[in-house]
């Protein structure tokens, strides 16, 4: 593996569920098995949402990159925009390996509805279980921290 030129960010653990390593937290924990290095995505693209996106990965068929099945994409830390509305278009069901209703559960996690989240099985999940849902989310939400805050609230309430 080679690192491309430019500024990079390092993550102890997986890119999908790891935290950025900087300052006093720039170390491997005892449960980490890898260090991931990813290019910093700081360049802004004017009207990037209008372009067909031959060089962009998409789980939906919204970019030309979807049609290049064998193409190796160069990923970065760029999220291509800020938070948007959560749109239920079937992305979560495609990547969720567990037999749960991910769209409804994720909506309840974002809303902080602990009762409904428990009924949908949030007690059986860990932050890493929602990493792929975070990756494919068109709304750019972080579901791992949302799950952790709901689980902490459930524990505090008893």
UniProtKB/TrEMBL annotation:
InterPro entries assigned to the protein according to its UniProt record, in alphabetical order: NqrA
Enzyme Commission (EC) number: 1.6.5.-
Keywords tagged on the record: Oxidoreductase
Domain of life, per lineage: Bacteria
GO BP term, example: sodium ion transport
Coiled coil: none
Enzyme class: oxidoreductase
Gene Ontology MF term list: oxidoreductase activity, acting on NAD(P)H, quinone or similar compound as acceptor
Name of protein: Na(+)-translocating NADH-quinone reductase subunit A
Species assigned in the record: Klebsiella pneumoniae
Gene name as annotated: nqrA_2
């Amino acid at each position: 593996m080679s690192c491309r030129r430019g500024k990079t960010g390092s993550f102890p653990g997986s890119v999908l569920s790891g935290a950025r390593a900087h300052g006093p937290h720039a170390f491997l924990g005892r449960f980490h098995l890898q260090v991931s290095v990813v290019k910093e995505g700081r360049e802004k693209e004017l009207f990037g949402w209008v372009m067909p996106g031959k060089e962009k990965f998409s789980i939906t068929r919204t970019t030309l990159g979807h049609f290049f099945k064998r193409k190796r994409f160069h990923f970065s830390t760029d999220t291509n925009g800020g938070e948007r509305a959560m749109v239920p278009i079937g992305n979560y069901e495609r990547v969720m390996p567990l037999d749960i209703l991910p769209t409804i559960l994720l909506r309840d996690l974002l809303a902080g509805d602990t009762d409904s989240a428990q009924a949908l099985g949030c007690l059986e999940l860990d932050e890493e279980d929602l990493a792929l849902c975070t990756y494919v989310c068109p709304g750019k939400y972080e579901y791992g921290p949302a799950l952790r805050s709901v689980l902490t609230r459930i524990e505090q309430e008893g």
